[in-house]
Design a protein that fits this description.
262 residues, alpha/beta, Rossmann fold, 2 domains, 8 helices, binds nicotinamide-adenine-dinucleotide
C-alpha cells in the first residue's frame, strides 16, 4: 500500500529511542522528512545517524518536552529545515509511577507539563500551517491506561485521559479543515523503558525478571509483548491520506490486553 508519505514533513517528539524512534524510522522509511527530538544529545545523534544511514532525511533537535521554549524552537527548526509540518507525533518519557499517596503536587505539575501541556503547545504551534495547507495529521502516543487504568500509575491514568479529552475536542474543531487528530494506545511493548521496568518490578516484588515478564504475558491474549514497529505501522497509516476519514479515535496496539468491547 502506498501511504503517500514521500516528502511529507513529520515531527516525532521524544524519539531518540523506544516508540518515538520506531515511529521516526517508519515515517522515514515511507519517505517522510523527519525531525526527531529528545533531551539527551548523544542518544539523539546516534539515532539521527542510524536513520540517515538508511537513506532517511532527518534533523535532530535537543528538546525537553516540559520546556515551552524548546517546543517552540523544535517546530521552528522543522519549518526552516523542511517547511510547514504535515505530521505531528506527540510522545514523551511518561509521568512517574506511583499511587495517590506516593505522588505530591510537584509530581502532578510535572506530569501535566510533560504529558498534557506539551501536546497542547505543539498543536497550537503546528495548526496554523496545517490550516493553511488544508491538511494535517496529529497523532498522540498515549497508553492502554486511558481505556483500562493501570494500578500504581495514577499520574499516567489521569493525565493521559486529559490528553484524550483534548484530542477528541480538537479533532471535532479541525476535522472540516482536513486535519485529523488521533491517539494510539500502546500496550506492553518491548522498549528500553519496559526492559528497565522489568528489573524494577522484579526488585520491588522480590521476583525474578522472568517471573515479572511471564506475569505481563499472562494478561495479554497474544501471549507476547508488542514490538515498537507494530505501533509505528499504525502511526504511519494514520499519518497517511488513506486515513483521512479516521479522526478523534484512540486505537490500541496491545495484543488484546484491553478487554472492553468498544
Ligand atoms: P523510552 O523510555 O524507551 O523512550 C522515551 C523517549 O522519550 C526517549 O527518546 C527519551 O529520551 C525521551 N524523553 C524522555 N523524557 C523526555 C523529555 N522530558 N523531553 C524530551 N524527550 C524525553 O519509552 P517508550 O517505551 O518508548 O515510551 C514512550 C511513551 O509511551 C512513554 O510516555 C510511555 O509511558 C508510553 N507507553 C509505553 C508503553 C510501552 O510498553 N513501551 C506502553 C504504554 C505507554
Amino acid at each position: 500500500m502506498d501511504l503517500g508519505l514521500s516528502g511529507k514533513v513529520a515531527v516525532v517528539v521524544a524519539s531518540s529511542r523506544g516508540l518515538g524512534r520506531a515511529a521516526a524510522e517508519e515515517l522515514a522509511a515511507e519517505g517522510a522528512r523527519v525531525v526527531i527530538c529528545a533531551r539527551g544529545a548523544e542518544a539523539l545523534e546516534e539515532t539521527r545517524a542510524a536513520i540517515t544511514a538508511t537513506g532517511g532525511e532527518i534533523v535532530a533537535v535537543p528538546v525537553d518536552t516540559s520546556n515551552p521554549d524548546d517546543l517552540e524552537s523544535l517546530i521552528t527548526v522543522a519549518e526552516t529545515s523542511f517547511g510547514p509540518v504535515d505530521i505531528l507525533v506527540t510522545n514523551g518519557g511518561g509521568p512517574s509511577p506511583g499511587t495517590f499517596d506516593e505522588v505530591d503536587d510537584a509530581a502532578w505539575d510535572a506530569a501535566v507539563a510533560g504529558t498534557l501541556s506539551s501536546v497542547v503547545r505543539l498543536c497550537r504551534r503546528v495548526l496554523p500551517g496545517m490550516r493553511e495547507k488544508g491538511s494535517g495529521r496529529i497523532i498522540n502516543i498515549t497508553s492502554i491506561a486511558v481505556k483500562q487504568p493501570v494500578d500504581g500509575l495514577i499520574l499516567s491514568n489521569a493525565v493521559r485521559a486529559a490528553v484524550t479529552g483534548f484530542a477528541r475536542t480538537l479533532a471535532n474543531e479541525v476535522a472540516s479543515q482536513g486535519i485529523t487528530v488521533n491517539n494510539v494506545m500502546p500496550g506492553f511493548t518491548w522498549t528500553e523503558r519496559v526492559d528497565e521496568l522489568a528489573d524494577k518490578q522484579a526488585a520491588f516484588a522480590e521476583a525474578t525478571r522472568d517471573e515479572v515478564i511471564a506475569g505481563w504475558k499472562a494478561a495479554i491474549p497474544a501471549a507476547r509483548l508488542g514490538e515498537p514497529n507494530e505501533l509505528a505501522a499504525l502511526i504511519a497509516f494514520l499519518a497517511s491520506s488513506r486515513a483521512a476519514y479516521i479522526t478523534g479515535q484512540s486505537i490500541p496496539v496491545d495484543g488484546g490486553w484491553i478487554r472492553s468491547l468498544v
